[in-house]
Model the fold of this input.
Amino acid sequence: MQNPFQNAMEQLEKVTKVKNFDKEFISRLLAPDRDVRISIPVKMDDGSIKIFEGYRVEYNNALGPYKGGIRYHEDTEINEVKALAFWMSIKCAVAGIPMGGGKGGITVDPKTLSKGELERLSRGWVKRLADILGPKKDVPAPDVNTTPEIMDWMADEYEKITGDKTRATFTGKPLGKGGSEGRGPATGLGGFYVFDSLRAQLGLPEKCEVVVQGFGNVGQNAAEIFVSHGHKVIAISDSKNGVCDANGLDLKKLAEYKKTNGTLAGFPGSKTVTNKELLEIKCDVLIPAAFENQITTENVNAIKAKVVMELANGPTTPDADEVLFSKGIPVIPDVLANSGGVTVSYFEWDQNLKGENWTEKQVFDKLLPMMNDAAQKIFQKAKENKTDLRRGAFILALERIQEKIN
Ligand code: NAD
Done:
């Protein structure tokens, strides 16, 4: 299997076969502006020093400061971070926000660290990178396994080092500490707005049966939002297991069950399935909301969903994407479907710089038309160019970046 950056570059190449772009412009997007690797020494609770590997990739800032989350995961490596940073450049352009693309990470399983170790590691990442960060330079955010509390430690460390009190260098902070109302559910909600905008055009029924892979910030929020709008979540999974109930899962009870038992498996009234089986369940909408490379040539022919909506970044490999396209299964691409997260991050940054605090309603009222606009523009681009929604999204984004690149 290709690494995520190879997948991302293959997606870019595929777009240039559908629409002619200036070769020099495309060649500038084949590598990031800057790719920084750091060693972070952390004093562990037992007094020893452990060195962790960290990253920040600044991909492209034609539209504004680099923007993108920080991922903590044991499998995080530079090619993953580069791919995610590239997709952020496309995503910010798709969402129509004045931000460029970046991404960061640390190779670590945060579950193996104490809270103190996690805080020292997070502050260490900022110490190494403070020079290249800043509200007008590079604005990180949370991603997998990074929380509002971690963003708060990072914002605090940045303030200590630079004296900048705007707190606008990190988004995804807690409420009351510079965070925005609505940031928690923003990615799932933005995904729902995109789905709702395109539902009829994609031939989906008014009430859909939905399968969600991932029970984290994005997956759980999205599942709850779909249910609150009358759709049925018939299966959902975390990293270990999935559970399935054709009558629709009670997500509140499921969350309580997982909290008590540490697993989704055995939830009363449901059937426990593997993650592999979960992806193959017949449904209207399949939502991968966990990690990259989940729908591949190995399982794509077993996918029985009418539509795939990617809330995770890069869950479908380029080869699998082609199979879905040829089978007439639309894929609402990550760069559109999960762009609600970065859009509300941008709102947070904007509020910090202006010294404002918007209500949740103000945030969601601003988010909805932006998601609708992006979804409809991409649908039109795909139609005009007789291609899929991913290439439609890339065309829209590349046109916007090309206009501003110098
Ligand atoms: P998270 O850490 O909150 O949750 C990840 C979830 O995935 C967890 O429930 C974990 O148990 C589950 N998981 C891990 N491996 C799995 C597997 N093989 N199968 C099924 N589930 C698995 O992370 P998150 O913030 O929800 O991010 C999920 C995805 O969404 C990532 O691809 C991330 O880049 C993307 N994303 C997140 C945001 C955001 O605002 N948080 C924004 C845009 C995109």
Q: What stands out?
A: Residues 142-145, 187, 213-219, 237-239, 275, 289-291, 311-313, 338, 341 surround nicotinamide-adenine-dinucleotide (CB under 6 Å).
